[in-house]
Amino acid sequence: MRPLKDTLPRTGDKLLYVFYDFETTQNNEYTDVAKLHVPNLVCVQQDCSRCENVENGADCVRCGNRKHSFWQDPTGDLLSYITQPRPWANKNVAIVHNAKAFGFNFILNRAIQLKWKQEMPMNVLKIMCLKMEHLIFLDSVSFLRALCVSCPMRTV
């Protein structure tokens, strides 16, 4: 995999950043010793170039409501939302925390069902990035530069 560069995207790229997180239940048995994760909620926050530096999450004049929640069909609703036509954006970048261990699974399963062509650069057996059409799904953990020991400890 190519190393990351400290350069801005091409000026021709008009980006929408979508940050999301799945919540799941484990009520269905998968095997005798394992249960199946089933998404029951996905929370979404988005940023475009006009609102990326606005702290309070207020609505944007370009991209509209910046916070969304989907619970009927979380994966399908998320993909429908991300793929909506937006004339001001030619690329949608979706970012999820710890995707390689969990968050990409639901997206990848739905993409396979829909027969979408995917590109998946991988690091050993872990998916680093998922590309489909004008969509790019990134794992935030894969792109953190700091070592875990240098991150501040979280107290409960």
Could you walk me through the main structural features you see in this protein, from its secondary elements to its overall organization?
The chain is an alpha/beta fold. It has one domain (15-143). The protein contains 2 helices and 8 strands. It has helices at residues 74-82, 99-113, and strands at 15-29, 35-48, 67-70, 91-96, 122-123, 126-127, 129-132, 135-139. A hairpin with a 2-residue loop joins strand 7 and strand 8 (135-139).
Please tell me how large the radius of gyration is.
17 Å
SS strand fraction: 25-35%
Count all strands and give the number. Answer: 8
Shape: globular
What is the structural class?
A: alpha/beta
Q: Spell out the helices and strands N to C.
A: EEEHEHEEEE
For the record, the count of structural domains works out to: 1
Task: Output mean pLDDT.
Answer: 79
Distance between the termini: 36 Å
Number of helices: 2
